[in-house]
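So, who can interpret the following?
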Amino acid sequence: MKLIRTKGRGAQQTAELLTALERRGSAALDAVLPAVRRIVADVRKRGDRALLRYAAAFDGLDGMGSLRVTKDEMAAAWEALDPALRLAISTAADQIRAFAVNQLPASWSDSSLDGLTTGQLVRPLGSVGCYVPSGRHPLPSTLLMTAIPAQVAGVERIVVVSPRPALETLAAAHLLGITEFYRLGGAHAVAALAYGTESVPRVDKIVGPGNLYVTAAKRLIAFDCAIDMLAGPTEIVVTSETGHPLDIASDLVAQAEHDPEALAILITTSAGLAKEVAAHAKSLSRTNPVARQALDRNGLVILASSLDEAHCITNRLAPEHLTVDAASDLDWVQNAGSVFIGRWSAQPMGDYISGPNHTLPTGGMARVRGGLSANDFVKLITVQQYNAAAMRALGPHAVLLAHAEGLTGHAQAITTRLSRRPRG
């Protein structure tokens, strides 16, 4: 991990680096966009014919007969799991479901003026596609994190796609009662979900993380099919003064092992803590090649000149995962995907079992949104109902606003009602 200081020699270089980190995002997508554009257009135009070609080349699919996972296959996968792992998956599912239930927005109505009722209806999306990666590691946790909030929201059709799905992923699908599961991945899976083929009906929204090709495809189809967010490499920031060096280093290594491009940063004013964490991270990553590569590329220890500066840098970076020392630190946190407080709150607990979603904004997008939640699977429909008295009270004001905007038809629609004498 590289140690940089915000003051003294190298301060200008640090400032430039922080500015570049603020602007991190989807630039890496540009390199794969031409290939992804061809794949998406091909699947959109030729349907199953193109889908099968890409699925055979990239997913190892042997004909359309093996495209869809059967309920029996999912049930067999569940039975094949060790009972302790079945319990772990069930416990995680219960935690995630309980959290999603608390997140779900409610329908309501209110009468702030006699004769006027306003409110909102909460209605689920009709269908969603959950993308579950299956590259370096099987990720049954991602299936839980994407499908359960959709179930809580009441989504009727939940589709899962995953290339070469692992036994654990199939087992998790069985636990949740998933009935539509396809052995698909990459840009062609996204295209099939967005536009539909003869075998894969389209969905209203696509959620879940993926590699550069998946993310680029989601960006391309975003005007035709809703998406959750554009997910980049995993990010961790630990902002600490009193944390335990080994705990901090272990969290940095844990998130760094997701991806060689993962971003792992410690921000502190303590030179002693900075050096100890860097030493522990180096030691812990020796036998973890992916983490070691990520820490060599993107591992940083930022030595700030004051607490205020440390807090400011943290919010500027808007990290996906953030660890702080104490609950009082929440007072200054403005931008973060998910926050972990204190030494016992290991970040991998959030990846698996705490309850909050692990599908989180990266690339600085925590400035404008939070992680995946039950809210991503519903739509809010606003409602308004007037009687004659409420129309007489508010109508003249609306007429003035309509004339101010030069929209005479708007004004007429209101004055027509105002000129009508109420019955009785």
The chain is about 45% helix and 15% strand. The mean pLDDT is 95.
